[in-house]
Amino acid sequence: MNTKIDKVENGTVTTPDGFQAGAIYAGINKKGKTGLDMGILFSTAPCNTAGVFTKNRIKAAPVILSQERLKLGKAAAVVANSGCANACVGKQGMADAKEISRLAAENLGIAADDVLVASTGVIGQPLPMELVRPSIPLIKVSKEGGHNFARAIMTTDKVEKEIAVRVKAGRNTFYIGGAAKGAGMIHPDMATMLCFLTTDAEVDLEFLRESLRKAADVSFNMISVDGDTSTNDTVLLMANGQSENDPITPGDIQYAKVFQEALNQVCIYLAKAVARDGEGATKLIEVTVSGAATEAEAKQAARTVVSSSLVKTAIYGNDPNWGRVIAAIGRSGIAVEENKVTIYLGNICVFKSGQPQNFNLEKAGAALNKANVPIDIKLNMGDGEATAWGSDLTEEYIKINAEYTT
Amino acid sequence: MNTKIDKVENGTVTTPDGFQAGAIYAGINKKGKTGLDMGILFSTAPCNTAGVFTKNRIKAAPVILSQERLKLGKAAAVVANSGCANACVGKQGMADAKEISRLAAENLGIAADDVLVASTGVIGQPLPMELVRPSIPLIKVSKEGGHNFARAIMTTDKVEKEIAVRVKAGRNTFYIGGAAKGAGMIHPDMATMLCFLTTDAEVDLEFLRESLRKAADVSFNMISVDGDTSTNDTVLLMANGQSENDPITPGDIQYAKVFQEALNQVCIYLAKAVARDGEGATKLIEVTVSGAATEAEAKQAARTVVSSSLVKTAIYGNDPNWGRVIAAIGRSGIAVEENKVTIYLGNICVFKSGQPQNFNLEKAGAALNKANVPIDIKLNMGDGEATAWGSDLTEEYIKINAEYTT
Predict the structure, then answer these.
(1) CB B228 to CB A403 under 8 A?
(2) CB neighbours of B327 closer than 8 A, spacing ≥ 6?
(3) pLDDT > 70 in chain A, percent
């Protein structure tokens, strides 16, 4: 089967057929710079829908509600807001999440059970329902509303994060789109991250769930901004089947494979965008660990290195302090032998088979003074390989987070 | 048995009988502010000696050598240096560590096997042995040398960390002293931390080992500055029996108990001093978790909260953002039910049995604007209780660590 995956120019969550979106400023997100803080994503046809959610034991009400509603794997719309997480506010949280879904359902003319809910923002403050209630009926969804939806979910994000790809697979063409928000509380096993993915492909529900888990594992679960896992993390994937192509099932291996590949690309693109736009970040750090005993160990090591405050500050300072990299590998808990380890910082070999290498400090500093900094670690223990992404740690992160609520 | 534990004024590692120390500036620690970077701690009588070391899988040569030499539990001296970790430098590292121990042994007139070695500083750079070699024979140990020893091990530490206590237990009197360095790469399961503990009590070797493990578990393993566990962490406890009191054995429960209590006090004092003097720190954060299902879960939760970058930046900013505290508890992996959780920030109740509390923002901010900030978390799941200590996270931490090697 001939396959081709192309990025769609100006693509977004409403690029796939049958998806519409809209947004409004309800006044929840006082500091929001986008002038929008509440959005609806809607599919004109019901969707097979998969979700992955925070593993935090303290879950926000919208997470609990959406998880419950996704048991049967069906949805037609999502309402999302920024500025308030609707987390840790007692019973009011669930009542508000349900009311929001009901109001959105009335606006769209569908059942409340088909509406999922997602929130992001400050924990512990109730939603200002007196602002939310009159706003939801005013949200107008349209084919052109995708960009506004992406802007409505931003908190301390500096840029919107959206993408769409066109997938050609033999006689079939379908699209996958996505929008995400990130910025802070970003850590493997789901960041403070909301991500909404859409596709007009018809996808078998079980396969949809599995493919989302797989894609999240190599993307959103491999990024870290600050090591804090939030109460609200939500990634949703809605498949409405409007492309009228052959259904994607695990039975058709090649066709299923290209869907997975395209979904991975979309998720990795958005995950990297979240990491790059981490609070206060000036750089994207890409840590690749190869030669680990297993893939799981490669992931563990890559995540530990990219989460290390000392590695992140060194990269911020253009400081080729590779000792912090090997110290992070050592504490990650994986199998490692010092004399087998080789490390490249910004493509410069700084440590080879257990021996520090002579390198030009100025050149190494320059190699780190870039928007994208690769750190490659070869363990020579086996075939496990993984990549993780993160941001550098800067004074700006401290400033942003020392003054978030008050 | 009547028991009494008193802090000795101006006490240090040479306060217990039979201990001497000395230090010199060899030129290893170019940025050292104390004018000392290498020290020897010596006991005139051989010591039962226990050690706990980093759990990092990448260990510095001095750690490996000291672990090996402690198999029989005997030592008479320690040589320690700051400015260079002697870690990840290939085979040269062990050769240098051994040579240092031999030179110190010659200076002191003892066997090299009785000398332990500890290093702290930059990882991946070999020790400048041309500076070290001529310096060791010049180190003069004396009863008065304890303070200089404490100063010789400092790196980015702003203050020396030392203490001694006098223990009276029935007819017996003995002393426990200690000196530590900390500052960065400080995280549970041993910080980038060196700590040297001395006692003139005669202590059964097995009991000595067990009591050090227990003391480390409630002190050094409960602090975090930046989540990074180093390659060089070392805590040593030397007992020389010079007080000529009754030997301390697990058999005499009361006597053993007061030794453990005094040792815990010394270790907690030093651990808090390390946390308070974390790189860039302006505050000591003390997180107490009570009512956890088990003590292990209480420890896990307390360590997670005190390690959270978002909690640390909020405390730095005097921001009563308790949502970050409960989010950290939730991601710590322990058993928790939102509606049973109560949280006090700086003694102000901000969240009670799952409900956000009304509190005066200004007063709460003022309660956090202190040198010591308590965070109390009641889980109401069981009897487990633990306390962890950490520092706030500031722009100064970033500055220090963005420019450490270059």
Answers:
(1) no
(2) A56, A58, A87, A123, A185, A228, A229, A230, A231, B308, B310
(3) 95
When mean pLDDT is compared across A188-192, A218-222, B212-216, B385-389, the lowest value belongs to A188-192
What would the DSSP string read from start to end of A300-339? HHHHHHHH-HHHHHHHHTT---THHHHHHHHHTTS---GG
Residue with tokens 């809209």: A22
Give the pLDDT mean for A28-49.
Answer: 88
Query: Regarding predicted confidence, which is higher, A133 or B229?
Result: A133
A123 closest CB neighbour out of B227, B326, B406: B326
B398 interfacial to chain A (CB closer than 8 Å): yes
- Determine whether the interchain pair A317/B403 forms a contact, defined as Cβ–Cβ distance below 8 Å: yes
> Which two structure tokens, joined as six digits, stand for A239?
């498949």
Residues 6+ apart with CB under 8 A from B106: B137
Question: What is the spatial order of strands in the sheet that A355-356 belongs to?
Answer: A223-224, A384-391, A284-292, A372-378, A342-345, A348-352, A355-356
State residue B398's pLDDT score: 82
Catalytic residues of A: 192
DSSP summary character for residue B114: G
How does pLDDT run across A136-147, given as a tens digit for each residue?
A: 999 999 999 999
Q: Are A293 and A384 in contact (CB under 8 A)?
A: yes
User: Which of A228, A324, A365 is the closest to B308 by Cβ?
Assistant: A228
Instruction: State the amino acid at position B74 in one-letter form.
Output: K
SS3 A69: helix
> For residue A242, what pLDDT is reported?
92
CA neighbor of A338 nearest in space, from A324, A356, A354: A354
Q: Taking residues B37-51, what's their average pLDDT?
A: 93
pLDDT at B46: 93
Q: Which of residues 76-95 of B touch A (CB under 8 A)?
A: 85, 87-90
A308/B227 touch (CB, cutoff 8 Å), yes or no: yes
User: Quick one: closest CA in B to A355, which residue?
Assistant: B90
Q: Which of A87, A317, A406 sits opposite B361 (nearest CB)?
A: A406
- The pLDDT confidence band at residue A228, using thresholds 50, 70 and 90, is low
Predicted model pTM:
0.78
Helix (H) or strand (E) holding A30, with range, is none
Judging by beta carbons within 10 Å of its beta carbon (0-12, 13-18, 19+), is residue B115 exposed, middle or buried? buried
Beta carbons of B336 and B381 less than 8 angstroms apart: yes
